[in-house]
Design brief:
Elements: H1 2-8, H2 14-21, H3 25-31, H4 38-54, H5 60-69, H6 76-85, E1 125-134, E2 139-147, E3 153-159, H7 164-178, E4 185-188, H8 192-195, H9 197-205, E5 209-212, H10 222-234, H11 244-259, H12 273-285
Parallel strand pairs: 1-4, 4-5
Antiparallel strand pairs: 1-2, 2-3
């Protein structure tokens, strides 16, 4: 009977059929089998679960692109249906927000140089920001610097204190990692951690152009905001850090081994940052 109904109405999902006949999915698979080839469908479901275990924040589109990169010819609607049936769709939400930006200070501020700028190369512009991370009994603060062109996190630092040293250490790590050329645009909000004399002096030493978001436009630093949303949903909210050291170790793995190296970025055509930068290099240098 179920087979006949499914044959007459192929648009019905397995979940809808099970609900209609008041049976479980496990009963359906045991007595009816998968509508597609059993072995191929089972292998596909297993691979999807493996991808989600490695990248918990992936939605069905990123999973589909990951499968395409492995040579699997799959339809995104099919992947969405499987992820719904297996409860693999990410539905993580944050609980509260702590304000970290204090723009009321005595330091000079700078105009926004990124507005309307079309980025054409790595290390043309960096965007900087920091956020809080909750431990079991305290808060710690993570400062990150992203390459605005490739979305790569080029420098980061975790601290127990929300001071200039937090952002300055992330900047120094980025400089040591990338060795930027003169004229780099460094963009941030107007918080005192970025406007302080010590931080500005470090930027002047590398001959960087200083850019800051306007107070009235929260979307001026959207790339950094998007990055922290990804970080929270795909790492922080999934963990229960026991200590500062535990948080630092887990963040290091996520940022260096997952986000920077393997995670597919929709804004980069579903490529990880190293591949995107390598593609740019090959186009420019013809290698």
């Amino acid at each position: 009977m179920i087979k006949k109904v499914h044959g007459d109405h192929p648009d019905l999902s397995i979940e809808q059929l099970c609900h209609l006949f008041e049976v479980s999915r496990s009963w359906y698979y045991e007595h009816i089998g998968h509508p597609e080839n059993d072995e191929e469908e089972t292998a596909l479901r297993d691979r999807i679960e493996e991808i989600i275990l490695e990248f918990p924040g992936y939605g069905y589109r990123r999973v589909t692109h990951a499968l395409h990169r492995e040579g699997k010819q799959v339809n995104h609607k099919h992947i969405l249906r499987i992820m719904r049936e297996e409860s693999l769709l990410c539905c993580i939400k944050k609980n509260f927000v702590i304000k970290t930006t204090n723009s009321r200070h005595r330091f000079p501020v700078y105009p926004n140089l990124l507005a309307g700028l079309e980025l054409t190369a790595p290390d043309q512009a960096w965007v900087s920001d920091f956020t809080y991370i909750r431990l079991r009994s305290a808060f710690v603060y993570l400062a990150c610097i992203l390459d605005a062109f490739s979305r790569r996190c080029v420098g980061w630092y975790l601290s127990r204190d929300m001071t200039t040293q937090l952002t300055l250490m992330a900047l120094r790590r980025a400089i040591n990692e990338r060795h930027p050329h003169s004229g780099l645009i460094h963009h941030s909000d107007r918080g005192m951690q970025y406007a302080s004399y010590e931080y500005i002096e470090q930027l002047k030493q590398i001959d960087a152009q200083i850019s800051m978001s306007s107070v009235s436009n929260p979307y001026d630093n959207a790339k950094a905001e998007s990055f922290f949303k990804t970080l929270k949903q795909e790492e922080v909210y999934l963990k229960d850090y026991r200590s500062f050291e535990d948080a630092e170790a887990n963040l290091d793995v996520f940022l260096e081994q997952v986000y920077n190296s393997k995670r597919l970025h929709s804004s980069l055509g579903y490529l990880p940052p190293p591949e995107f930068e390598a593609t740019y290099s090959s186009l420019v240098h013809g290698t």
